[in-house]
Design brief:
- The chain is mainly α.
- It has a domain of 71 residues.
- The chain has two helices and no strands.
- It is rod-shaped and about 90 Å long.
Length: 105
Amino acid sequence: MADVQFNLASLDSSSKRMDAAVEDLVAKTQSLLGEVSDVTVLGTNDTLGSIASMLYGLAIQAVQESVASVQEEYGAHGGKLREAATQYAAAEQGFADASSRMVDL
């Protein structure tokens, strides 16, 4: 059976990088949507413009929903990494405490 080792610093830095990736994704998405989300540029005075505006609006909505889903999953993964680090640190401390008590006996 292979040894399983956890590196607290790696788990911690990975969770922070996941959080940073989420923040970067959100900032870049908001910036992009700020530039391209105006559906009125397609025109609404004729049938084609109205249909194109409606479809474009739906496309923008799909992008927003997709990014929100990715944001949620990345955030959850970062949280799980943090939780793993916390639990591992607590387990390590428990083992150290138990070892000290055994030595003191």
